[in-house]
Protein: Pantothenate synthetase
Amino acid sequence: MTVIETVKEMQNISSKLIISGETIGYVPTMGYLHEGHLTLIKKARKENSKVIISIFVNPLQFGPNEDYETYPRNFARDKKLASEAGVDYIFYPSVQEMYPTEMTTNLTVTKRTDVLCGKNRIGHFDGVATVLLKLFSIIRPNRVYFGLKDAQQVAVVDGLIQDFNLPIELCPVETVREEDGLAKSSRNVNLTMPEREEASYLYKSLLEGKRLIESGERNPDVVIAAMNEYLKEHISGEVEYVEIHSFPSLLPLRQLEGKIIIALAVKYSKARLIDNIILNVT
Amino acid sequence: MTVIETVKEMQNISSKLIISGETIGYVPTMGYLHEGHLTLIKKARKENSKVIISIFVNPLQFGPNEDYETYPRNFARDKKLASEAGVDYIFYPSVQEMYPTEMTTNLTVTKRTDVLCGKNRIGHFDGVATVLLKLFSIIRPNRVYFGLKDAQQVAVVDGLIQDFNLPIELCPVETVREEDGLAKSSRNVNLTMPEREEASYLYKSLLEGKRLIESGERNPDVVIAAMNEYLKEHISGEVEYVEIHSFPSLLPLRQLEGKIIIALAVKYSKARLIDNIILNVT
Structure:
């Protein structure tokens, strides 16, 4: 496994790989790898001849009051995990390397962001789209892997790929969970013990919503109200939202039908957790 | 030579070319090919194993009062000229093919556009950058060729390539001129006879500016005033601007130094002409 720190070197390598007929599976990460990432890497490993991951905590996608500074980092550990998982190259650039000069253009995401996390994280998805467009040009993957835990990110990347005809196959991967159902996340380490214990109820509330829909409920407001009630009973964290939309277009639904997402966000003292499930309602 | 009308087919072909170790030289055009385009194609032909041109009159880069409808089109003629010039593929998509659905993102150009044509063509370069980013993803060129007649476009593309780390070499090519000095342009056909006759004075005024600088003048305002005076004497068209900036950053200059551009735009009854020269001032 090779660690690459400059754009130029990474671009030289990806060009050579492409010309040699290799297929590149790419997993963009912000590091502090956990089983969720390793699942993405495993899938990339199976479907491509070369696997590249990037580790870059992208300042552009953090708001001024968000956790850019405290976002967990541990490159030595990441390197070991990536190597064991069969990664071929880690692209590990500095902020200066990714943003050497002021940009001359501005990319904003205008759809799929007025709901869920986008509503409260102004500019977040602009930062995500910008860094991904750069990383895609640098790594030139055939396939890119994202966890469905960040479902809105998957929806935004789906739009980005379509908008700019990027020659990349988007591969969303099921959320990986702890035994009690909590979605794996780098941010889970910032939970206190009691928070960690009750956090399994986030997923359980999603299953509660799913159960209601499967039993015939088609009014999203009824499902959302029941889930809010359920969360109030079981958790102390502040519920930021419980929402249901079409997926991946993230449009409002009056009646539950087709591919939908049930998603929520909860704020704890030092961590903000998100989770979701995607269903086909027939 | 093959004409390709769909994004999917073009992308399949470029991927195959890349894997086969071919290098792709790309000339984006809006069609109605003239000697300027043919010069770009010849250069691409010399420097790459495959040459692709696109013909697409991009509605996104025309303002509501601009000449999208009247922009000259003649595909049969273009096809013949391209074939004779040794083009391998013409990418010739419909508007529906390029913009099948409403975009989910918005790309704007925030630098290098508050001067020259950008000042009066609000949104023009946003449309140029958007379509080029799409075309670059579809055609995946090693090198892209632009005429320096559209110098601001070259500056904007230079920024776009840097911003998004596009793995493409930008190849600007000297403006091709008629015998009397008029820069070749698809829009020249919209000049009346008397307009066409005097239009050579656009270039002559640029040479006048150059002469002044070479004789020691370093104050841009003095050069601009002299050029305006010269134009007033020789042409009937309305001078939209005469400007001098650094190149390619297009920043204002108090003192002429380094790589600079002298540029102008003139409005005639049914055509708006632009021209420029780029100098190294030592």
